Batch of 2 targets.
Target 1
Amino acid sequence: MLNLKDLNYRELKNWVVERGWKPFRADQIAKWLYVKKVDSYDKMTDLSKEIREYLKENTEFSSLRLVSYERSNIDGSIKFLWKLKDGNTIESVFIPEDGHNTLCVSTQVGCAVGCKFCFTTKDGLIRNLKTSEIVDQYLEAQRFVGNENRISNIVYMGMGEPLANYENVKKSVQILTDKRLAGLSNRKITISSSGIIHQILKMYEDEEFPQVRLAVSLNASNQKTREEIMPISQTNRIDDLMRTLNSLPVKTGYRIMLEYVLLKGVNDRPEDAHRLARLIGKNKKRYKVNLIPFNPFPGSPYERPEDERVLRFQSILWQYNIGAFIRWSKGQDISAACGQLRKKEVERVVKIS
Ligand code: SAH
Ligand code: SF4
């Protein structure tokens, strides 16, 4: 069944006109869905009863059902577990921060990329999410936390590789940034990729892909280590990746974020930090580095470095005047760390199905 959140503005308007309704009905529907964020068609009071009935019968209101949520007592972050229509489950994480709120969304059920430190990829890729399943994560989470906790930032850093689900992710970004639809600021949306070079280039060349921020999971400072922990690096080599990133037409205010998961004894030594600084070289205005201490999961082959090692790594980058920030995982008490989702859920999926 059609979900209206699978349509961008142009498609929504066409769809409305095809039904024989006046074009402005599209704007009314959009307002109820994306601005008022109502939870049912019945609340769309300025639509005729006939249109409301048609929508109820022929479209799906939401692609997600909330199965459970956990709120962190430490920092207030909330991890949502949603059930999709086919029974698969995905997660999003709401992260309150000083002055703004961020939602981390998933783009796939599972992931095919196979990074050794990542739990999402354990069972490979199950399927891509539809556009509506991405957009509904935002709408449902916003309804849950209420208007007083407005979500202003979206990071595509949950389950899955966004650029491996290119078309659906692209349309979700169109919907989220369109002023006539959700109207979020382009600068407040970040797409995180494991570094698939041709897909990054495609995104930058695609005029229909709204300009948003790019984050790339670098995770190592040389080819050998990167290949060990990220098999995708065999074909997307670190030098080629950096050359590509150095050449992207990045607007001011849209610095590229290099993500770096710190794995004890693997990539967190002082020499790794120095090498990372050299890799960035003279392009330090173009990047900021996000250091993410590894979040262990049962059976994971790596360890989380002690806080001192993390701080030392950061201070070395600072010596080179590289902007480096540590992402101390949010909601550790609920294992809500964005990018390390589906930890406990796998057990829970078994329980509900
Ligand atoms: N597939 C995309 C986005 C999802 S992963 C990507 O790889 O960028 C989001 C981030 O979480 C990535 O930077 C990834 O390196 C990080 N991550 C994955 N597993 C992690 C773990 N166990 N501990 C800490 N960070 C992890
Ligand atoms: Fe996929 Fe990202 Fe996990 Fe790598 S880190 S397996 S790309 S979700």
Note: The pocket of S-adenosyl-L-homocysteine (ligand 1) is lined by residues 117-119, 157, 161, 192-194, 217, 219, 259, 261, 292, 294-295, 339-340 (CB under 6 Å).
Target 2
Amino acid sequence: MGFELKKYLAEKKQEIEKFIVSYFNPSIIPKILHESVLYSLTAGGKRLRPILCIASYEACDGKKNIVPYATAIEFIHTYSLIHDDLPAMDNDDLRRGKPTNHKVFGEGIAILAGDGLLTEAFTILSNPEYADINPAILLKVINEISKAAGLRGMVAGQAYDLISEGKEPDENIVKFIHSYKTAAMIKASVKSGAILAEASEEKIYHLEVYGQSIGLAFQIIDDILDIEGTTEEMGKPKGSDIERGKMTYPKVFGIEKSKEEARLLIEKALQEIEIFGDKAEPLREIAKFIISRTN
Ligand code: GRG
């Protein structure tokens, strides 16, 4: 039987979630902070970034269990969403159809939950014992992920997103926001899988271009869903980007051109991973899923 994406995603999701619930030691963490961290970590995320990391590792013939390292990336993603929803940022009441973290636990605890998750990710990534990984390899992964998450990546993109609200459409700015706010972490997830597998420079390069392309397409589709999606499927109010005057792809290029750009990016991503043959089937199907997703 051929490859079934739904089954693959469900299996990987289960492994990631098993690690999440086993990871925290509630006796050390104050109860409310522990609840806040687990609330957002188990609120129904797609686990796209850790699954991409694992799929990339497997495409490069990696054979160890790297779920803890992949899940560390989900910790960073979860921190970014908790902080993104805060009143000082996007001020959202709903995420994945549930009240946002600060609505349930208060702003102070939500900020600390985000801070804790970001820091804890590096506690995991700097521990070679999870899969007997060469520390020099982990150092490379930490370098990639910290660059993608910080001032040279997601945080820079988020800052441009924030200060561009209500500004005139600008092609360069929207491309910067999408590349840094969203694509940087997706690219780093894919690249980290290849680094953990000790893949060749050539393979790492192709996977990096794949990651950047699907990452950009992912955010373009997110912008389109804000206009064409449904509040029920997305789990957050439709039209919130327009309401806030966000610099989005449809705002700058129009909806049809945005769809065409997303399609071209996915095509480019698929070309980049041709060299991996059947081993890249999960990466191939994930790229196609990104363009057809409804949440
Ligand atoms: C440093 C205070 C401070 C805040 C940082 C950097 C940051 C906050 C936020 C940026 C992260 C962000 C909101 C990126 C947008 C990318 C995006 C479309 C996120 C949703 O990703 P999905 O659909 O989420 O993979 P699920 O719910 O499936 O996990």
Note: Residues 201-228 form the longest helix (28 residues).
